[in-house]
Every structure is written in structure tokens, then in C-alpha cells.
Amino acid sequence: MDETATTSGRVDGAQPGGQATRVRRDGYARLGAADLGIDTYALADELAELAAAYRDLPRDPYARATNRFRRYSHAVYLPWTGELSYIPGAPDEEFGTVTEYWQDEHNPEYPRVLRRLPDVPPALRGNRLLDALIRADLGHAMWLEDLRRAPVYVGVHLISLAARDREQVAISSPNCLHQDGGSPATFTFAHLVGRRNVEGGENVIATPESAGRQPDALAPEAVHARFVLTEPLDGYGVHDCRVSHYVGPVRLGAGGDEGRRDILIIGVAPYTPGL
């Protein structure tokens, strides 16, 4: 599938009930494969293909010493036709193509920095599991009217935190509770692709006022949930303006000389008209 690959199939808002309504009611929810309607048996080959893509992720070009590896691409979803189309990246001498990543003031480590990150490989964009996860995430957000009346921006982010010795610490960005910012209709979904021989990587969901702080510095009532993703496709979703979220550093476990935590992040937000 090429740079402008498209797939179709309209997405309706998730049906009431279970974890689907918790994103709407509480601003966050734990979401596993069953909550997303994903048949892991039927898509086992696609999960293996997705997992293989993490083996050669480039180092984060803006933080090469953090043991963080990543790729990122944009796509556009049209709610009225169901079309999902990836936006071509810009040519780059080191990575082939790159996509710009902007978090305004919401990432205190890169305030108002327009980062250019290596693209998701074109061959992976035709992966049926990746497409199913994107559409399932959209289904958990499309109850919001603002996402029904405009093209929807979809950010597809492959991130690996990896450690190869006891001295290494792999750190996400930003290394604090945060919000991803942008529109009040922004959602972020995370899906574990693999976790092997690592310690740490705790996820925390807290109040929006907790952004910029460390979880252990918060009063207990400010913390909504703390958990560790352990099984493939374990994950969560957040309505960004209503909570803050965090993932802790990862260190090598006791089971060998390499450990890694591979995560797929899907960002959803309405496109803002430019005219």
C-alpha cells in the first residue's frame, strides 16, 4: 500500500454499555481487545506483523539518549464516507520520509517545537489489525458531535521503550502527567503491542490539574487509576481535556539482556479549518 493508502468503512459511536460508556462518562477507560471488538485469533498474523515493525524503530531523533524509539504518521478520516487516508510524509535524508509532530505548550520538554519524526512504513498502513484498532478507537470517540461535522485527524504513533543493561532507563515524553492538547475534542488511545523482560511502565490517569506533576506527588483523590499493561492489546482511552495521563520509566527485568515495551498510540481530533 502506498503513501496515500485509503481504506473505507464508516464508524459509528460505540454502543452504550461496558467500558465504551466510561470514556464518555468519566473521561477515561481501560480498553482491551474485547472492549474494542477485536478478534485476536482472526488477526493473529496481523498482530505478528505489527509487532515485527517495532524491532527496527529508529531512535527518537530529538532524544537519542532516552532509549526511546518511534515512528509517527498522520491520517485523515471522513465520517460521512468512512474513508481513512494517510497523509504523505516529507522527504528526509536520514529517514526517507518524516511527519511533523506538534504539541504546542502541552509537552514541557518541547514547548512549541515542531518535531519531524520518522514515518510509519507504507507497508504497515495496510495492516488489518492497525486499521481495526484505529476504527475501534474512533468508535469510542464519535459520540462527540464535533467529530461528526469535520474531517478527523488521526495520529498513528509507534513507540518502544527499551533497555539493554541495568544502567539504562527508557523514558517517555514528557516524563510527567500531561495532556496532549489541541481541541476539546481530542482523544488519546494506547494499545500494548508487546512487553518483554521489563520493569516499570506504570500508567497513571489523574485530574487535568495534575498535568506537569509526578504521580507520587499527588493527593490520593487526584488519581483516578494506576495500572500496568501486560497483555497484547491491553490499553486505555482518554478524553484529553478531562484528565491527565502518564507512563513511568522502564528498566531491564531479570529475564535476559534485553527488555522492551512496545505501544501503539492513536490520537483523534477534529481538523481545524484554515480558511
Automatic annotation (TrEMBL):
Q: Does the keyword Oxidoreductase apply?
A: yes
Annotated region (Disordered) at 1-22
* One GO MF term attached to the UniProt entry: dioxygenase activity
Pfam families according to UniProt: 2OG-Fe_Oxy_2 (PF10014)
Show the Gene3D superfamilies listed in the entry. q2cbj1_9rhob like domain
Annotated keywords: Dioxygenase, Oxidoreductase
Domain of life from the UniProt record: Bacteria
The family database entries (InterPro entries) matched by this protein are listed as:
2OG-Fe_dioxygenase (IPR018724)
Name used for this protein in its record: 2OG-Fe dioxygenase family protein
Q: What is the lineage of its organism?
A: Bacteria, Bacillati, Actinomycetota, Actinomycetes, Kitasatosporales
